[in-house]
Amino acid sequence: MKFTIVFVALFSVAYAATSPLVDESKGVGVIRYENTNIGVGEYNYVLETADGKYVEEEGTLKDLGKDGGSTYAVHGKYSYVGPDGVTYLVTYVADENGYQPSGDHLPQLPPQK
After folding, report:
1. DSSP secondary structure, 16-28, as one string
2. CB under 8 Å to 78, separation ≥6 — which residues?
3. Neighbouring C-beta atoms of residue 57, cutoff 10 Å
4. pLDDT tens digits for 47-72?
């Protein structure tokens, strides 16, 4: 599980850093791109494109104690304009408890009794 979280966090950072800044087939350009390594095990990035996509994420290496090792604690949000013209927003946390997205358009669990 810890490996999965670290992999997802690192993959998302690597993808954002290596993805083309212009989609040649659609002519969509990047309005804003920031990628900062704050310190050892800490990062943040922001990516905003002309077609309405927006991604913002921060990650910190988290020590889980003597026997727990370490993992990334990541939080962020992304939004996009759907085919219906509505802008959808997803906020999330990914840490030792897994990926936890939330958004008004996402299915909700029934209330616990």
Report:
1. HHHS-SEETTTTE
2. 53, 54, 55, 56, 89, 90
3. 20
4. 999 988 999 999 998 887 777 778 88
